[in-house]
C-alpha cells in the first residue's frame, strides 16, 4: 500500500488554485536555528506566486525573508466510523489539504498596500478597501508584505475515493455533518474574553 495513492492526490494547478481561493488561510511553516515556527496567514494568488503579510511583532518575521517555507491550506476533515457503513470497514480520517513549498521574498510598502487591497477585493463582496483608508497609513508600519515563489504543490484529498460511489458520497456527507457539529459545539463553548 503506497502512501497517498493517486486517487487521494491532486497535482494540477487548476484544482489547487480553486482550493486555495476557497480556503485562503494557510499554516505557514518555517525553520530557523533549529526551531520550527508556524503562523496562520491568508494568501492570494498572483501569477505563480502567493501574496501574504505578517505582523512585524511575530517572531517568524525576523527570519522569514529569503527562507524556504511550506504552506498548508486546510479544507475539512472528519473521523469516519465503520458503523456508518453496511460493508466491513476500518476507522479512518478523511481530509482535504493543499501543500505548497516555496521561497519568501519581502516586498516594499506599495506592494503591501496593493496586496491588501487585492486580498480584500477577492475575499469581500461587501467592502471595498480604499488606498486612502486612514487605518492603512497607521497599520502599514506594523506589517510586512511578502510573496512566496512556488516551487512545488500538491493536494491531499482523501475522501474514500477508493470505495464504491455510494461509500464515497456517504463519506462526503459524514465530513460535512462532522464539520458542522464540531464547529457548532466549539462556538457554543467559546468564552468571550472580558479582560
Automatic annotation (TrEMBL):
Record's protein name: Negative transcriptional regulator, PaiB family
Transmembrane segments: none
InterPro entries associated with the record: Split_barrel_FMN-bd, TR_PAI2-type
A Pfam family: FMN_bind_2
PANTHER family: PROTEASE SYNTHASE AND SPORULATION PROTEIN PAI 2
Amino acid at each position: 500500500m503506497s502512501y497517498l495513492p493517486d486517487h487521494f492526490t491532486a497535482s494540477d494547478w487548476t484544482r489547487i488554485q480553486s482550493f486555495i481561493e476557497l480556503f485562503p488561510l494557510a499554516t505557514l511553516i518555517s525553520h530557523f536555528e533549529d526551531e520550527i515556527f508556524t503562523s496562520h496567514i491568508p494568501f492570494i494568488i498572483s501569477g505563480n506566486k502567493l501574496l501574504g503579510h505578517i505582523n512585524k511583532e511575530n517572531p517568524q518575521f525576523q527570519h522569514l525573508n529569503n527562507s524556504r517555507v511550506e504552506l498548508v491550506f486546510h479544507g475539512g476533515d472528519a473521523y469516519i466510523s465503520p458503523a456508518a457503513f453496511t460493508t466491513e470497514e476500518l476507522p479512518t480520517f478523511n481530509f482535504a489539504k493543499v501543500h505548497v513549498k516555496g521561497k519568501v521574498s519581502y516586498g516594499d510598502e506599495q506592494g503591501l498596500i496593493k496586496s491588501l487591497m487585492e486580498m480584500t477585493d477577492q475575499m469581500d463582496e461587501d467592502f471595498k478597501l480604499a488606498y486612502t483608508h486612514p487605518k492603512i497609513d497607521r497599520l502599514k508600519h506594523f506589517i510586512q508584505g511578502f510573496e512566496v515563489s512556488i516551487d512545488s504543490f500538491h493536494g491531499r484529498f482523501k475522501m474514500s475515493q477508493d470505495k464504491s460511489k455510494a461509500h464515497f458520497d456517504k463519506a462526503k456527507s459524514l465530513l460535512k455533518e462532522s464539520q458542522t457539529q464540531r464547529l457548532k459545539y466549539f462556538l457554543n463553548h467559546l468564552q468571550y474574553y472580558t479582560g
